[in-house]
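Notes from hallway chat w/ T.B., transcribed later so I don't forget. T.B. wanted the structure written out for a chain they're using in a teaching module, and asked if we could keep both sequence and structure tokens in one place. Agreed to drop them here.
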Amino acid sequence: MADEELTQEQLAELSVADEETETPTSYKIPAKKTLEEIVKQDEDDESLAKYKKALLGNQAVCSDPNSPNVQLTKMTLDCKSSPGDLFIDLTGDLNGLKSRPFILKEGVEYRIKFSFFVNKEIVSGLKYIQETYRNKIRVDKTQYMAGSYPPNKDKEHHFLTNMEQAPHGTLGRGNYVIKSSFTDDDKHMHLSFTWSLSIKKDWE
């Protein structure tokens, strides 16, 4: 028997339910300050100076004017039962990712891991936003707070999403398009790209 696809009505219901679960936040964005301003502020306070040194580290900033402040380098699907590595190099051409889907066996547990550098200035309130579509209808939207980071071009950071279970069953199998983006409290769009998942009965 051929696999059944979700009807347009079912997909629309999922999309409406997803929108209803989105709640506004009362979080207030702090005033933006450069790294230099933060270092010089209250510089006569010895204890505060020590605290800022411990927090900011060696401040090994990148001097290349063409280098992005937040440089995402790799996305990995962390799945213990996968027979091989599942990852994307985020430093290359991302335009063709949608046509080269990851294959996941139905029902497996996985999470997404991002690797990145902060090169020049403190990034405040880094956020990862993920929108999932099926048959051009959005069926899920999730936002993760990834945190705030001081600049250090030599230190690689890693961010992991929550564990998820891949769709399963006749209605769950099929192709999903995912729109991923990274932004922050200052509304800088650090990276936005589209990729896809193909949920199958087995890994091949």
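Follow-up for T.B.: The helical segments are 8-21, 35-40, 46-56. Might be a good example for the class.
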